[in-house]
Amino acid sequence: MPVATVAGTKVWQRRARGTQFAIWLGWLAATLVVVLSWNVISERTMWMFVEDAHVQAADLLGRMVPPRWSYMDRLWQPLWDTLNIATLGTLIAIVFGVPLAFLAARNTTPSRLLVRPVALFVIVASRSINSLIWALLLVSIIGPGVLAGILAIAFRSVGFIGKLLYEALEEIDDSAVEAIQATGASRPQVIGYAMVPQVMPAFAGISVFRWDINIRESTVLGLVGAGGIGLQLEASISQLAWREASVIFLVILVAVLASEWLSARIRHAII
Amino acid sequence: MLVIDGLAKQYPTGDRALKGVSLTVPKGQIMALIGPSGAGKSTLIRCVNRLVEPTAGRVSLDGQDLTRLSRRGLRRARRRMGMIFQEFALIERLTVMENVLSGRLGYVGFWRSWLRRFPAADVAAAFSLLERVGLAGFEDKRADALSGGQRQRVGIARALLQNPSLLLVDEPTASLDPKTSRQIMRLLRELCRERGLAAIINIHDVALAQMFAERIVGLKLGEIVYDGPADGLTADVLTTIYGEEDWSQTIRPADEDGDEDAPAIPPHEPAVPIDRERLAGLT
To answer: I want to staple A101 with a disulfide (CB 3.0 to 4.6 A). Which of A106, A165, B110, B181 is the partner?
Structure first.
């Protein structure tokens, strides 16, 4: 017990003696695990390579500078493609993700036994596969190009938007829903009047956030042939054209910074 | 006229919130429902419009049995019962006008309500109700920009726009300061009298209940333990309802009568009540 009586006065401690001891044991075990794991990793590492890592890194960096700025001329089109992949993919995901969220949320689903599990499965399936893997699959199905990239982004984002929006739906204020029900409103009216306005800020925030993520994800889709600036990156790296690769890195950095700034502005304006 | 007969509610958890309550509320009567927390007051009024499904008993409004209605029939019946809530239950992000017009949702179709194309008569009625509750000129404000007292006025206007014959009022003043509480209760009483509305008002504040209701029903552990006029609330009765306590300060002195109070809104100065609320430190 945290409270004990010692020599007639009550003494309070944060934890009882047994609990305190168990916590110390836990820390001891954690330390042991770290030390053991370190040993295993160390045995399986070729330290020879690690020892000159800083030399290699410096060498690579040396080959990257100065960036070949003239390469920019050939990057505008892929950059535009990348932005389009992210934006169109997000729009498609919104079109399918929003109804999915209403089917999945406990308080709006038409049927908890039939529809809800199916909607939840679609959400999990979409979320469990990374955009890059979706792109790999889609490139082999519909061939390389921007369309595969758009669909890869859309497939991954449907689950993201669906999940976050259905969670927002389940957390709305029920008293407003009760009040609208009490007026004699029909089910669609209750959803449209009492629920939709309550999740609008969440919806706007989720969509803009996903668009921001998609800008970043679409920069690598080209690595597997799904269009965008990644295609150029892959080409430059395989030709060991490091001075071109560094231009691409900088372009991606600027694009991501710009999208973060824009999405922060939009979210701030809405909420 | 509302007739409640042998109404019982047992929640899935096993709690018996109501144990066979029978009541008759005639047209135009303002009835206050008092009792300790957990006595079943909220459950009782929610069983009337079936936001909570009763497990046994019958509720009928103007001769129509509400407990046996289909979903569609229930929606139609709910239009005749306006409900007012403790936390106002407005749609915070919508405007005052949209909130008030939501009282007509039972009468208009989905697309008209979604596109906010309510019939002109409804909009006109909403304007005049807003003026009546002292919120003229507030149509375009968002509900979350209002003070507590103003929000409750929006809630009242929403309920009245349904053109109900019964008001179900759940703790209308529990989130308000004492002065605003009185103003809101006075407004409710005036509106009920103007329109011949019956009202069931759940209320914690015994003094307010005595001041504004003609009849008081005391509920304790799901059963009625007092049903009578406001004057009949003696220390003994309060002890039966709430338990042993010194009630001498709670019981209303005989000379202070709510009827002598000034009207909620002076008829000639529509803008003044709002300013008075501001001065009372509400905004």
So the answer is: A165
